[in-house]
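Anyone able to model this chain together with alpha-D-galactopyranose?
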Amino acid sequence: MNFQTIFNQKLPQVEALAPGRVNLLGEHTDYNDGFVLPTAIPQKTVVQIGLSDDGMYHFYSENLNEQVDIGEEYFRPGNMSGAGKMPTLQYEFASYIFGCIQVLKEVGYTISPLNLYVKSSVPIGSGLSSSAALEVATLRGIRQLFNLPINDVEIAQFAQQAEIQYAHVQCGIMDQMASSLADTKHMLFLDTRSLERRVLPLPEGASIVVIDSGVPRTLAGSGYNQRRAECEQAAQLLGVKALRDITDVNLVETLPEPLRRRARHVVTENNRVLEALQNVASLEQFGELMNASHASLRDDYEVSVPALDTLVDILQKTPGVFGARLTGAGFGGATVALVATGEEKNIAQKVLEQYSHAGYSGNILVGA
Ligand code: GLA
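re: yes, here you go
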């Protein structure tokens, strides 16, 4: 299948792509106005777009072999708040694309009916932001097709709005910013409050290994929104706008449980990101911060699962691994490890073998 056969149209008018991301440090901090440190992964989502000539919007996913057709009447002002009529989109991938178009229409751009073909190598459900990659690729393609005057930060912001409004995940902005602005050779240090950012080379002598735990996760149903609500409650009780405003971890001690532990994770995680910036040169210290991040996500934030703990434990004990942790929202999905460059494949295979002895079945996503 390709664009031509699906849409019976000669060639797409534009093609755009965007990568998935893996977060090295700064987990569950972005919706607390905090700091994050992601990098792009080699896997990408590609969209090809042409104008549609039947007045309908057509979206096709090559990976799923599914097509969704939507009439113009579904894109209505007011739909952003859920007030208008929402189309019942049968397929999740289409709701992200619909959301992107709707968000652009809401701010006043004319987006005429189009044919949009998607193919992706970003794994779905592993915590590597396949949805952000789809949103950013879609918005880039549409920007190019209609010559829209929007920059890469605005692309990330529109993408985040699409996700919040249409995928109903109260996500922060890390994934969309990473997909829009990061590359695979650098880490993107981002202050999610000011959107100030710095691009830093990956720690010298180290490479990234990402292993999927084999335990799938679903963001919306996974307690993500609940964690976010707990953080907001904690911030309110502490009298600050967001937990980002707390830097002294002792201040969270007055909170009732589980808010105390949730807040402690966020405060210490923000401090770890800032500390990592000072220690990019020391692989050992950077690795230790990753290990501490995992312990905090497991014990204080409670977003790990036994499979992730087992995999991280094996990684951390393997020679050549500087540090390892779960990455993304948690509740399943993947781990990220910083390992000695040149050893990626060797280490990943050894780890997978031990992981399978423990009764699990993992999969190398980066570093194979
Ligand atoms: C998901 C969200 C992000 C971020 C991470 C956890 O990937 O989309 O905004 O909150 O979880 O760090």
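The radius of gyration is 21 Å.
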